[in-house]
Design a protein that fits this description.
Elements: H1 2-14, E1 19-23, H2 28-41, E2 46-50, H3 57-70, E3 74-76, H4 80-90, H5 95-117, E4 119-121, H6 127-132, H7 153-162, H8 167-171, H9 184-188, H10 192-199, H11 206-218
Parallel strand pairs: 1-2, 1-4, 2-3
Amino acid sequence: MNKIIKNIQKFCQKNKFEKVVIGISGGIDSAVVSSLLTKALGHKNIIALYLPNDKNDSELKDIKNLTKQLKLKLIIKDISPLIKSFTKLINCQSKFVLGNIASRIRMTILYAYANKHNAFVCGTTNLSEYLVGYFTKFGDGACDFEPIIHLYKSQVYKLAHQLNIPQNIINKAPSATLWPNQTDEKDMGVTYDEIEKYFKKQTIDPKSKLIIEKMSKNSYHKRRLPFSIDS
């Protein structure tokens, strides 16, 4: 934990930025990163935004409890009107397409606030998600730095306990909140535990192994941006 905090401080000092913008989803990753940022830079230098595209009182309650604990000022902006506009504009009802649009809209707003306040945008992707490409290209995958991208999901949970993250957040099913009732593991078809075991070369269910290998292979382009086409 202390090493991550020091590295955040070094990164911001080297690049002469004092403030950081982060999108808070109510999940464990953004909660852990928000806590690390607060310890590294102080609560007054963190701009926390909650950008929902559907009404979720339970989620909002968890986020308010977290930001109160960290003494962060919370900015809430409903992006559902923007999602509806895109739905009409491109004539599309696919939840996957609109889910990715939601992620990219959120990042656009985060960068707008970063520009406004001369700040960096902080990402919340963990290693388990990164290795299988479970993030939106130019959405939550777009940021200036990633404090927990070297940590498997299980390590994020351990860090959450060390940081005294509220138990409600720790207990909930991981979700990118791309659409109502969406969960990461249901989306992927494998568990975070299986992903970690696979990349640690441990034995897992053969079907899960195939899913992970396919996800990792098909998302290679996400981990190499931009791809250079040699002449």
